[in-house]
Amino acid sequence: MEILREEIVTGKLPPGSPLRLKALADRLGMSMMPVRGALLSLESLGLVEQDPRRGARVGSFSLDDLYNTYEARLALEVLAVERAASRFTDEDEEKARKALDEHTATAANTMASREAHTALHFAIYEAARSPWLTKLIMPLWVNSERYRLVSIPHRGDREARRLEHERIIDACARRNPRVAARELSTHLAYTANLVARELGGEDMF
């Protein structure tokens, strides 16, 4: 599943690409059963669409999907960062800053950069001490990653992106839920609006 997810998220398999079981099984060197299971798992993450007549395909980009994904992310992740900010420990701050350093040190659009970015955000969300919140956030996060990659060339330099994350961590470290929520909302909405414009739409948030 990890290979297929990476190919979909990075655009190696573009939106709308057919995902035929036998061809995938042959290419990946496995039987069709685990490939079928992988496609079902990826469908639950919003990365694959199943059609009884056309079969499985890579999920399409759409303004509706973008809006629904980020609307849910804003609700859940803002709640998570508010709770995290009220409970943030020195260990939580150290974990988040280490992930931020790794994200800053890696080149944009690489797997290492995406892994560090994920580690950074979830170091913060896990500080909320709410396992259900992180479980609910994860599928939305995975689906939005392919949209986020569209925004990277238009976000400005990496220092600007680092400062966005720095402000979120600083607010949590100061135990200020209101500011942490505001900074994260701005961060997520900015990405969603950039992608919306790239897809021919208008700002959403």
From TrEMBL:
One Pfam family named in its UniProt record: FCD
Record-linked InterPro entries: GntR_C (IPR011711), TF_FadR/GntR_C (IPR008920), Tscrpt_reg_HTH_GntR (IPR000524), WH-like_DNA-bd_sf (IPR036388), WH_DNA-bd_sf (IPR036390)
Residues covered by the HTH gntR-type domain: 1-61
Protein name: HTH gntR-type domain-containing protein
Protein's organism: Mycolicibacterium holsaticum
Entry's Gene Ontology molecular function annotations: DNA binding; DNA-binding transcription factor activity
Signal peptide (from-to): none
Protein keywords: DNA-binding, Transcription, Transcription regulation
UniProt superkingdom: Bacteria
CDD domains membership: WHTH_GntR (cd07377)
